[in-house]
Design goal:
The protein is an alpha+beta fold. The protein folds into 4 domains: about 1-155, no CATH class; about 170-200; about 205-310, Roll (CBS-domain); about 345-430, Uridine Diphospho-n-acetylenolpyruvylglucosamine Reductase, domain 3 (2-Layer Sandwich). Helices cover about 55% and strands about 15% of the residues. Residues about 425-430 have low confidence and may be disordered.
């Protein structure tokens, strides 16, 4: 009798151990990072190759795990029932074995191995993958038959699992991963913003980041050579648009570096025609061009400067390679740039903001979520929401903010005060 009890106990322990193997293998293989496994595969890790193959055959893997897990759990319960009945009788034995086996299975075959596996998904998946792969091959006829039966039953209810109907794009998955890592403290805000901006390049048009023509320094090509040289040298820009007759008639781009070079060669004795001869031809691009395409175009043409035109052919502003790079990495300032004070903080929720500050820059710097589809600047967004040009002192509430005009010219809002609603703070503090 003692030998029989020992044999039954060891058999139950073995079955629980096998059940723990199936539970931990399933959890580890589903929780392990696909990107990490892919990198290990690229490095030649053979176990990672097995993991990758198992993940691609999810139905066969899960079928094998469930089949094996249920088989050993049922077998362990049956043996435990037999042992308990012999020790305690029919009535007490059934109750005792139910309580004991439930605790053993839940603790040692489910919760404990799955908890460990989810915390150590990579080493566990690599360790268990070969054995599980062998079992998948052994049980393949059974699991394949079960899959066919399941698909047939689901089709009776109008469900076809062979058709993929994913509404989530790979870009959305990447964005979600980036945001999740940031929320969990695994990624700093600057890296989150940079990676998000790279993904946005294909969705943002050049009109959203261009320097508007009212802020662009230009030169009249009809000026004398001395006047052109004086204006070009005194500017803080390396490239200056040239126009003739009227400001809309752009005829070229003067590169100050080329001007200095020709001045040295000709000892400063220049004519207007000589200066115009070294100007680059203007490059006009439609305002609907997305940043990704323009970045590629800049590289292809080996140019850093383009004019943005609307559907009527009127130039609206300029976009440079630096503008696109700044859209990714943030503002790039050199020793010649003036330190701006376009966003002034009054308290934790209130700011004085220049009207020409881009909505995207504001969202990036202050972690706000203002929409930028209908307006590029904060002044434009206010006008869009107000549906008129507000006067000084007028206030509006939109998107969780109170916005007040505090300074303007005749037709341009130059400064606004924005305060964030308390409930907006609470909403941003919600963790995923």
């Amino acid at each position: 009798m003692d030998n029989e009890i020992i044999f039954y106990s060891l058999t139950i322990f073995l079955f629980l151990l096998i059940s723990a193997f199936f539970s931990s293998a399933e959890t580890a293989l589903t929780a392990v990072s696909r990107a990490r496994i892919y990198q290990l595969v690229m490095d030649g890790n053979k176990r990672a190759q097995i993991v990758s193959r198992l993940r691609k055959e999810k139905e066969a893997m899960i079928g094998t795990v469930l089949l094996g897990n249920n088989a050993v759990n049922i077998a362990a319960s049956a043996i435990a029932t037999t042992l308990s009945v012999k020790l305690f009788g029919d009535e007490n034995g059934l109750l005792i074995v139910t309580v004991i086996m439930t605790l053993l299975v839940v603790i040692f075959s489910e919760v404990l191995p799955k908890t460990y596996a989810i915390q150590n998904s990579e080493p566990v998946s690599l360790a268990f993958a070969p054995a599980l792969s062998l079992l998948v091959k052994i049980f393949k006829p059974i699991t394949y038959t079960i899959q066919i039966i399941i698909r047939y039953i689901l089709r009776l209810f109008g469900i076809d699992i062979t058709k993929t109907n994913s509404l989530i794009s790979s870009m959305d998955v990447i964005r979600g991963t980036i945001e999740l890592h940031h929320r969990e403290g695994k990624m700093i805000k600057q890296d989150r913003d940079m990676l998000g901006s790279i993904l946005d390049l294909n969705d943002i048009g050049v009109e959203s980041i261009m320097v508007h023509r009212t802020e662009v320094e230009t030169l009249n090509a009809d000026l004398s050579a001395d006047e052109l040289i004086k204006a070009a040298i005194s500017t803080m820009h390396s490239r200056i648009p040239m126009w003739r007759g009227e400001p809309d008639n752009i005829i070229g781009v003067l590169h100050v570096k080329n001007l200095i070079k020709i001045m040295r060669e000709q000892k400063g004795a220049l004519t207007s025609e000589a200066i115009l001869s070294i100007c680059n031809k203007p490059w006009f691009i439609p305002e609907t061009t997305v940043l990704r395409d323009q970045l590629i175009a800049f590289r292809g043409k080996r140019q850093h400067f383009a004019f943005v035109v609307d559907e009527y052919g009127s130039w609206q502003g300029i976009v440079t390679l630096e503008d696109i790079i700044e859209e990714i990495v943030g503002d790039i300032e050199d020793e010649h740039d003036e330190i701006g004070n376009d966003i002034q903080k009054l308290d934790e929720s209130t700011y004085i903001i220049d009207g020409n500050v881009a909505v995207r820059d504001l969202n990036r710097k202050l972690s706000w979520n203002l929409p930028d589809e209908d307006a590029a600047t904060i002044a434009g967004l206010l006008i869009h929401e107000a549906e008129n040009i507000p006067a000084v002192g007028e206030s509006y509430s939109f998107y969780g903010f109170d916005c007040t005009v505090i300074e303007k010219t005749a037709l341009q809002i130059t400064k606004v005060k924005m305060s964030k609603h308390p409930e907006a703070h609470l909403q941003n503090d919600i963790e995923l």
